[in-house]
């Protein structure tokens, strides 16, 4: 049987950083930065599969489904991070995009390394997530081989749930359980086996594309403005004012006044200004067009 280092590229030693412990701080920075430069190119190689995944996720959400991320360790934390940022950014319900990590929420702060080896628990966690045939399950792993994640994906496939695999290993076992495979081959890590580095960066870029792309497809932006932003603090309120002012073509004072009248609902305020109507009429227009501002204006 081959040992892992013969199979998984991220577990192999990187010849470009072999003397990193003898290097100056500037040299260490340059070494890591030079390796990081390779990540975006690896993601670009997967643009066709990424586009397919965006279309699948958008289709599922429009059909009443959800986007569920599953991962162990760094991969799981990145999934939870991306999921947690969708409600404030795009105004979606907290359960629309959900992240699950091997070992449960305690693993977000404390490494529970053995959790990724529990195949049976993966199947249980998928069941407990209440995922169904309307949803899409995304498995995230640098190696693509954790038994827990394979349990998750196999259970999903057995239940007829669409699956997407994200990995950095062309020989990843999760490929067998993925309807769409996104494999970003980033090569050896600066620190051998530390997949929180290039592999983690690649996963973050991929997740950014998947969630953002899907939200754009379902009408959560107008042009490149986040029109469903939830203005829960001063920074976001200022952003909402600027968005309304620019799209509606008014000054910030009028934008702020209209936002206040619209309970700081950005799309409602924009329609009020564009059509010189009340907030109630604006909300009716939004309902009639499925909340998609582009269709209205």
What's the SSE blueprint?
Layout: H1 4-7, H2 25-36, H3 39-44, H4 47-62, E1 67-71, H5 73-90, E2 97-101, H6 119-128, E3 136-140, H7 147-158, E4 162-167, E5 180-183, H8 198-217, H9 234-248, H10 252-261, H11 266-275, H12 279-288, H13 293-296
Parallel strand pairs: 1-2, 1-3, 3-4, 4-5
Task: Summarize the structure in short.
This protein is an alpha/beta fold.
Overall mean confidence score, pLDDT: 95
Shape: globular
Total beta strands: 5
Give the percentage of residues in beta strands: 5-15%
The first-to-last residue Cα distance is 62 Å
Would you state the CATH class of the largest domain? Alpha Beta
Helix content: 40-55%
> What is the N-to-C succession of helices and strands?
HHHHEHEHEHEEHHHHHH
Number of separate structural domains:
2
Which class of secondary structure composition applies to the elements?
Answer: alpha/beta
CATH topology term of the largest domain:
Rossmann fold
Summarize the main sheet. 5 strands, parallel
Task: Spell out the key features of this protein.
Rossmann fold; alpha/beta; Helicase, Ruva Protein, domain 3; 297 residues; single chain; globular; 2 domains; disordered N terminus; five-stranded parallel β-sheet
Give structural notes.
There is one protein chain. The chain is an alpha/beta fold. The chain has two domains: 11-16 and 22-217, Glucose-6-phosphate isomerase like protein, domain 1 (Rossmann fold), CATH 3.40.50; 234-296, Helicase, Ruva Protein, domain 3. The chain is built from 13 helices and five strands. The protein has a five-stranded parallel beta sheet with strand order 2-1-3-4-5, with helices on both faces. α5 links the parallel β1 and β2. α9 crosses α10 (252-261) and α9 (234-248) runs parallel beside α11. The radius of gyration is 22 Å and the shape is globular. It starts with a helix and ends with a helix. Mean pLDDT is 95; it is low at 1-5.
């Amino acid at each position: 049987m081959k040992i892992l280092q013969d199979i998984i590229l991220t577990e192999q030693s990187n010849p470009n950083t072999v003397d990193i412990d003898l290097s100056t701080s500037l040299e260490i920075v340059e070494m890591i930065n030079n390796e990081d430069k390779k990540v975006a190119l690896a993601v670009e190689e997967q643009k066709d599969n990424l586009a397919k995944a965006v279309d699948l996720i958008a289709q599922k959400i429009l059909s009443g489904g959800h986007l569920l991320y599953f991962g162990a360790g760094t991969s799981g934390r990145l999934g939870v991070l991306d999921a947690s940022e969708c409600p404030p950014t795009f105004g979606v319900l907290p359960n629309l995009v959900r992240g699950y990590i091997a070992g449960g929420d305690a693993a977000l702060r404390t490494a529970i390394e053995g959790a990724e080896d529990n195949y049976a628990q993966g199947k249980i966690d998928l069941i407990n997530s209440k995922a169904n045939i309307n949803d899409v399950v995304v498995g995230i792993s640098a190696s693509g081989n954790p038994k827990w994640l394979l349990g998750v994906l196999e259970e999903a496939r057995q239940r007829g749930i669409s699956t997407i695999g994200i990995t950095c290993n062309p020989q990843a076992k999760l490929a067998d359980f993925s309807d769409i495979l996104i494999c970003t081959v980033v090569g050896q890590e600066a620190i051998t086996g530390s997949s929180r580095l290039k592999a983690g960066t690649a996963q973050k870029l991929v997740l950014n594309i998947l969630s953002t792309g899907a939200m754009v497809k379902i009408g959560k932006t107008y042009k490149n403005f986040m029109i469903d932003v939830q203005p829960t603090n001063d920074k976001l309120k200022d952003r909402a004012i600027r968005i309304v002012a620019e799209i509606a073509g008014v000054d910030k004072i009028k934008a702020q006044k209209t936002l206040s009248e619209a309970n700081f609902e950005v799309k409602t305020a924009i329609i009020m200004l564009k059509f010189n109507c009340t907030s109630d009429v604006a909300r009716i227009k939004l309902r009639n067009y499925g909340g998609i501002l582009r269709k209205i204006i």
